[in-house]
Amino acid sequence: MSYLLQRLFGRLPIGWLQLTHSRTRFAAALAGVAFANVLVFVQLGIMNSMGAATLRPYDFFQADIMISASDASTLTDGGNVARQWLLQAMGDPDVSDGMGLFIANVPWDRGEKDISLTTFGVDPVKTGFLSRDIAGDLNLLRVQNAALLDRLARGLAKEEAASIRPQTPLSFETQGRTITAYATFAGGGGFGGDGYMLVSDQTFLSLYPTRSSSAPDHVLLRLRPGAETESVIARLKTLISDPSLRIRSYQEAAQEDLRYQQTKRPTGIIFGFGVLIGVLVGIVIVYQVLSTDVADHLREYATFKAMGYGPHFFLGIVFEEALVLGIMGFIPGLVVGTTILTLMGKITTLPLGMTPSMAVTVFLGTIIFSALSGAIATRRLGAADPADLF
C-alpha cells in the first residue's frame, strides 16, 4: 500500500504512515467508515427494494395506456373507472384492445399466521395483457374459482408452492369461497401484501359481491403497432367524456406510482432520511478521524509550513488519508452490507440485495465525502501561524 501511494502521489506517503502509526486508532477509524457504509447500504437496499416491490406488479401486465381514477396515486389506491370509458376509448382507431383490471387484497388463513395476497381480477381470454410467463397459464382461470398463485409469497413454503400443478392443485378458503390454485408465477412479498394472486374477473366479483363488473380499478389499453402513445393519449383526453380521469402511458403510471411511494408515503420518506443520516454519520466519523490526526501532528505540519510547504501540500496529505480511509473502510462495509441485505431478503422475501450500481454509488460517495471531510479538517491548519504552534 505504501509503494502504491508513493507511486500515486509521487512523494513519501505521509498520510498513510501517519494513519498506520497507531494501528488501534487506524482500525477504529476503518470500523467507523465501514459502519457508515453499512448504514447507507442497508437504507439504500431497503429503499431500492421498495422501488422494486412497487414496480413488480406492473411487470405482470403488458399495456400501452392505463386509465385510472383521479385519486389513483398507486396501482392499489383510488376509486373505480366506469367500464363505459373503456368502450369510448375503443372508439379510437389506434386502440386495438382494452381490459378492465380489478384489484383487492385477499386474506388467507394459514393457521399460525394469516397472509394477505394482492389479487388481480383479469379477463382470462385477453392473454395479450399478461406477461409471457403468466399468459401461458391464463386459460386455467376460465374455470370458476381458479387462481394462479405467487410461488414466492411470504408464508408459503417452497415445497408447497412447487407442488402446485394442474394435476395437484392447492385449494384454500377465503372470503367464504374455496379458491383452487392450478399454477404459480414468480412475484414475491411486498410492503402492501405478502404476495400476489391472479383470478378471472368473474371469480374476483364472486369474492367481492359488492363490486360491479362495470367498475374496474383501472382500464388497460393496447395500441396498434406503430401508434404513437402520446398522440393517442391526447386524443383520448378529448374523446372520453370524464375529464377527471388520469390517462397515462403504462410506463408513466408505474413511475408516478414509484415517485409517490418514495416522496409521499411515510415509509419512503423515512428510508430517504435513513440514507441521509448514514451519509452524515460517515462525514462526521471521517472528519473526526482526520481532524484528530491533524491536531496530533500539528507541530510536524507547522515545521513543514515553516520550511515553505504550501497549503496544497497539506491538503494532499489529508486527501491521501481520506482516500485510504474511504477505500479500506468501504471494503468491509461492502461485505457486511451485502451479508445483511441477503439475510434480510431471505427472511422478508423482499427484493433486497446488493446491486452493482448501489456499490459503485456508495463507493464514489464514500470517496467524495471523505475528501470533503479532509478539506474541512485542514481549515485549522491553513489558518495557523507556525510561530504559534511551538
TrEMBL record:
Keyword set includes Transmembrane helix: yes
Keyword Ligase (UniProt): no
A family per Pfam: FtsX
Residues annotated as domain ABC3 transporter permease C-terminal: 274-382
Compartment(s) of residence: Cell membrane
Transmembrane segments: 26-46, 269-290, 322-345, 357-377
Membrane-topology annotation of the record: Multi-pass membrane protein
Entry superkingdom: Bacteria
Signal peptide: none
Keywords per UniProt: Cell membrane, Membrane, Plasmid, Transmembrane, Transmembrane helix, Transport
PANTHER family linked: ABC TRANSPORTER, MEMBRANE PROTEIN (PTHR43738), HEMIN TRANSPORT SYSTEM PERMEASE PROTEIN HRTB-RELATED (PTHR43738:SF1)
Protein name stated in the entry: FtsX-like permease family protein
Organism of derivation: Peteryoungia algae
